[in-house]
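Re: weekly structure request thread

Next one in the queue (284 aa):
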Amino acid sequence: MKKLLTVAGVVIVASLLLALRSAKLTIEKKNADQESLLALLYQQKAGEYRALCLQAYNLARYRIDSIAAIYKGAKPMAIVTDLDETALDNSAGDAYAYQQDTTYNPNQWDLTGHPDAVPGAKDFFKYAAGTKKFNIYYVSNRPALPPILDATSKQMGDLGFPVSATEHCFFRFLPAAQVGSSKQPRRDDISKTDSIILLLGDNLIDIDSTFDKINKKYLSSTERQQRVTNNAAKWGRQWIILPNACYGDWEAALYNNAPNPTLGLKDTLREQQLKVYDYLHPVH
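Done, posted below.
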């Protein structure tokens, strides 16, 4: 009997500890965005996410094979790619911030982060740089500071990316508040010496200036979609986009350029922009 009571006590204590842990994990966040959890899990756990990435990089390989076979230009061929969520998977850093109920800390990502490679990325860039002799330019909005350049190069080298010299890392030289987020000036500099054959990114601004802010304001979601459609022939040919449900200009566009929107305002604006089927009044 005493043994049974002891076992029962252990079970009760274990159940209480599990309940407390569950309660702790489900406490409403004050700083971290509660709605980011599903996006993070999609990036880390969904086979569909992995398939989309592999599909994108398989297509990229097909494109450079096709172009290299007929290229007669005088300039060397080049690929321009974004880094974060295009080549490097930082979702574990986002998950850490979520669990700690805090927000994005660029120093953690840039200096001490331990990213994974986006599925298909490492093999593609090694193939492009090695077998096909393409110049690879990593155009990122990480700050162009020596410690960050060195840390990023080490992160990429440890993962097996071709990073022979930091001169192929075109990072942002001034704070975004001063120079904005546009990557077009850096792409223009690369075009002076190389022929850009392919551009890859997870955010439309990684691809072309047509998606940049206008007068420091994000394009609306409708305008972004329209500009994507206007350039339909370039997708999968010159431009390849990778999936990122965690963050990006697509999300910022939802908030109507509100300065520093609170989590409450974000939730309101998100719900307002849902396209909803009216089951009570169906269209006949």
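The chain has a mean pLDDT of 88. The beta strands are 77-81, 88-89, 116-117, 135-143, 169-172, 195-201, 239-241.
Next request, please.
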